[in-house]
TrEMBL record:
Domain Right handed beta helix: 111-263
Transmembrane residue ranges: none
Residue span, FlgD/Vpr Ig-like domain: 440-490
Signal peptide range in chain numbering: none
Superkingdom of origin: Bacteria
Organism listed in the record: Candidatus Raymondbacteria bacterium RIFOXYD12_FULL_49_13
The name this protein goes by in its record: Uncharacterized protein
Amino acid sequence: MLQSCILLLFSASIAFGYVTFDGKEVPTLPDPATTVIVANVSQLYMAIRNQQAGQTILISPGIYDVTAFEPLRISVNNLSIRGSAEDPSDVVLTGKGFEYLGDEEMFQLYASATTFANLTLSECRGNCVKLQSMGNNNCLLHNVRFYNIGERMIKAPNPGNIYSRAWEIRYCHFENTKIPAVNRPDDIAGGNYIAGMDLMYCDSFQIHDNVFMNIKGATGDGRGAVFTWNNSTNMDTYRNTFIGNDKAICYWATVTEGTIKNNMIVAGANLGARIDNSIGIKLFNNTSFSADSGNGAFTFSGSSGCEIRNNIISGGISVTGGTYPDTANNIILTRNQKTVAARWFGDLSKGDLHMQSDTCGPVDKGMVLPSVTDDWDGRARDSLPDIGADEFSNNPPIDLAEFANLPKNDIFLCKATPNPFNPATVMRYSVPAAMAGLPVRVHVLSLDGKHIRTLRDGHAGAGSFSLVWDARNDAGTPVSTGVYVVTVTVGETSKTAKVTYTK
């Protein structure tokens, strides 16, 4: 029986890197060769102003208000902008705010081979990272957190029909905790002009192992968390997690060729996937499900040569115009089939889209597809593949759906998973925007209140986070089996959860 990605990364090593909100370990980047170290906003400004090809601008932990010199223009090739720590919440760049009433862009790219890594970009009204000149090729976004961006977290416009090619966007976290006002100025869609990424004239982008949370418009009609269109080609979106977005994945007008596979979609107010006026799009082994409604459908309009195979889809498939896609071997869940889904996914309230039993209907019922060799966890599929994003294994529950409707003025601590655990467990918590910048401490105590381990000690970033505890104390010594208390404290507010370590 296959083990889950989480359990494998725990058992593979004792020293853990940064772990994403959905439990994936982020690969560590190679050490940079030529660095410019900055520790305050003035130094950051001068480093951007004096940028040179081949440099890494290495940003020390802290909060950097860049509003005085936005937009930050990247004009030389092969420049990296990188936080010095593995945890992206240690380095936070802030703009004028989600609710700002004017135009704002944080970064503008006029170059290629740019890397953004290990940092948070937050509170920007307009476009956060914009491909200003287009022709911006071979760029990497690695372990970047985008938080409360009012229009586009990544924007590729269409100046002169110039393609940007060969990007990789991986292990990033795209999250909003705010919703635009229906009457906000300069919003052409009545508060719905908002998306995770908006990509025009892009080619050969790899968008994988990211988290997209709560990207919503004023009336539930926000653009896609992944929104690619206007003659983009060869766009691949895979192994991502989507939670509570109005629309998860949109390929529009006209995207030619691309694969959408192994994504887990906890549907929000609208669609799981929308394909409009596009050619040759393949949707393979995705799971789109909502415990609360019939949302999550896949819709097609005016498209041709598309294939929809091995998917679990809540809300069905709708086709208008174009050529009817190949829809072999999908499982369509209606509102009345929640009891069936409960047997497949376990506790519906948790939104865990891993299958819980080898007796589930999707197990061993999939078609063998040459382009689908692994699953959402990155684990190899066997000769009798399952339908959906997960190849059945003894996956621990991952409480993700609870984060689709977070409290606005209080911290939130989810139950640890797995629990009981051995050798490690993941704690997930959220911090509201109003508490950003306050001192944060996450620590483990014994039942009698003795300090065991500090997992985080610094200043709180806003958004949703995860931490791993490997059943060791601050000295690196394994603890005894038993029950322990995890405490998250932000300012004067604390939340606790119990975890049980077994052998």
